[in-house]
């Protein structure tokens, strides 16, 4: 779970790539990610890569929502939100400005 508290946003990435658990293989990405102190991100709905018959990665594109948002803990301290909400925060965030994320 994400620890309760006040956090400072420290960087943003258009895509946060995540690994398949227990491996060094990139499984997919989460769009519009903002990293905050505590070692976690707030981001849009993750998208796992699909693979073509030749083994090449197929980008599934951004997804807006998921049935698991707010109901199933699936991440390693991250805060998943609707992709449009994550984009709003991503566009609003400015590096070097004080931004506080409150998790309740």
**How much is the average pLDDT?**
86
Unreliable parts: none
Query: Judging from the principal axes of the Cα atoms, what is the shape?
Result: globular
Q: Per DSSP, what share of the residues sits in E-state strands of 2 or more residues?
A: 35-45%
Distance between the termini: 12 Å
Structural class: mainly beta
Q: How many beta-strand elements? A: 8
**What Rg is obtained from the alpha carbons, in whole angstroms?**
14 Å
> Roughly what percent helix?
under 10%
> H/E element string?
EEEEEEEHE
Biggest sheet record? 6 strands, mixed
What is the number of helical segments per DSSP (H or I, 4+ residues)?
1
In terms of topology, how is this protein built?
Blueprint: E1 5-19, E2 26-36, E3 40-43, E4 47-48, E5 50-51, E6 57-58, E7 79-80, H1 83-92, E8 100-103
Parallel strand pairs: 3-7
Antiparallel strand pairs: 1-2, 1-8, 2-3, 2-4, 5-6
If you had to describe this structure to a student in words, what would you say it looks like?
With 104 residues, the chain is mostly beta strands. The chain is 10% helix and 40% strand. The chain has one helix and eight strands, in the order βββββββαβ. It has one helix at residues 83-92; strands at residues 5-19, 26-36, 40-43, 47-48, 50-51, 57-58, 79-80, 100-103. Strands 1, 2, 3, 4, 7 and 8 form a six-stranded mixed sheet that branches. Strands 5-6 form a two-stranded antiparallel ribbon. A hairpin with a 6-residue loop joins strand 1 (5-19) and strand 2 (26-36). It is globular and about 45 Å long. The termini are close together.
């Amino acid at each position: 779970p994400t620890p309760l508290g006040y956090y400072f946003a420290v960087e943003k990435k258009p895509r946060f790539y995540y690994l398949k658990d227990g491996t060094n293989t990139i499984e997919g990405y989460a769009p519009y990610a903002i990293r905050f102190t505590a070692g976690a991100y707030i981001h849009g709905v993750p998208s796992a890569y699909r693979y073509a018959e030749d083994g090449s990665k197929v980008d599934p594109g951004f997804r807006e929502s998921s049935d698991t948002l707010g109901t199933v803990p699936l991440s390693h301290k991250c805060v998943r939100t609707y992709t449009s909400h994550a984009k709003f925060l991503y566009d609003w965030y400015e590096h070097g400005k004080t931004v506080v994320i409150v998790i309740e």
